[in-house]
Amino acid sequence: MKRPLKGEGISMLQKIDPKTLTKNPFTLIGDQWMLITAGTPDHCNTMTASWGGVGVIWGAPAATCYIRPQRYTKEFVDQNEYFSLCFFDESYREKLTYCGKTSGRDGDKIKACGFTVETGAGGVPYFAEAEVVLCKKQYAQDMKPECMLDPSIDGAFYPQKDYHTMYIGKIVEAYQRG
Hints:
The protein is of the alpha+beta class and 178 residues long. Helices cover 20% and strands 39% of the residues. It is globular and about 45 Å long.
């Protein structure tokens, strides 16, 4: 089933079973990066991330993402039941860099990038220009240094002691280019 999108010149997204995702998550997340977005279509924020994963937990397809406490997007993820993970092709690298370096507290990043906001499951915003995984939040936990079994991780990744919060979301919808 194809779903039409509002954005002019944007190819159609096709709703798929998350179990049929064929793209390599290591490449999508670690190399190409993703945008984590939450809020409402009229008031949302997004941030670039390169930490996360997909798999199965509690008997369902799931995605994880990690957000530091100072990130503005964290407030939106904490206050909402759903979040989206948006994956873009390499032509969006400059916009993803911008969304990773600029705070939504300082301006409207979504408008500045020209992204088309769509609405998915639970009213969660996502971007028509991306391939998308929509998640219902199921679990959140702050990372703690005493739980790091390799002590070098703390010093290497947390010199300012700004430990990420890990979010696990049940994948409730997934879309990719047809």
